[in-house]
Amino acid sequence: MKVAVLDINGKETGRKVDLSDSVFAIEPNNHAVYLDVKQYLANQRQGTHKAKERAEISGSTRKIKKQKGTGTARAGSIKSGVFKGGGRMFGPRPRNYSFKLNKNLKRLARKSALTIKASEESIVVIEDLNFDSAKTKNFTSVLKALDLQDKKSLFVLGALNNNVYLSSRNLKGSEVLLNSELSTYKILNANKVVLLESSLEGIESNLSK
């Protein structure tokens, strides 16, 4: 698949790059995508929720009324969950929501996500960015040139560039990450995936294993 390379002003450079069909043009596996996104979202959960149960709240342990003869249900403790102020029955407890997926499935999910974006023409390839300083206006000018000001965008770098990363950090709709940090969720969550030229080799080598 041939894709034109743009400069930081959004103009074509006259060059084209070849995106590997084994990464950007496979038969998407929707179930693999579902599992990888599910794992990503599960890993974001802190799992610190907790409700007090009857053994953990303050209250008398006295039997509140006699067992028989009242015409109502028997009751042994004011801390029972059926009474106001009682403990929560079967309440949430701290737990770990994460689960494991094998590497091949995660690789397939990422390739499927990139294929989906490529089929929607939502992948843009640009020259490498290199700012002299970390200023938000530098990154904003790039977004404006690519017509991405009001869209969710994901910029993928080939190597760590602090000036580019820090310039984008204040912009809510844009995210910058390394090719090794690419995830199915982030690919699908973006309206446009912007690949820097230097990131292509790493993406293809990571996902072609």
Outline the structure in words:
By secondary structure, the protein is an alpha/beta fold. The chain has two domains: 2-45 and 97-207, Ribosomal Protein L4, Chain: A; 48-96, no CATH class. It is built from seven helices and six strands; from the N terminus they run ββαααβαβαβαβα. It has a six-stranded mixed sheet. Helix 5 (162-168) links the parallel strand 4 (153-157) and strand 5 (174-178). The longest helix has 17 residues, at 103-119. Pfam families: Ribosomal_L4. Keywords: Ribonucleoprotein, Ribosomal protein, RNA-binding, rRNA-binding. InterPro entries: Ribosomal_uL4, Ribosomal_uL4-like, Ribosomal_uL4_dom_sf. GO terms for molecular function: rRNA binding; structural constituent of ribosome.
In short:
The protein is α/β, with parallel strands linked by helices and 209 residues long.
> CATH homologous superfamily of the largest domain - what is it?
Ribosomal protein L4/L1
Mean pLDDT: 93
Shape: elongated
CATH topology of the largest domain: Ribosomal Protein L4, Chain: A
Subunit structure: Part of the 50S ribosomal subunit.
Family: Belongs to the universal ribosomal protein uL4 family.
Pfam family, one: Ribosomal_L4
GO biological process, one term: translation
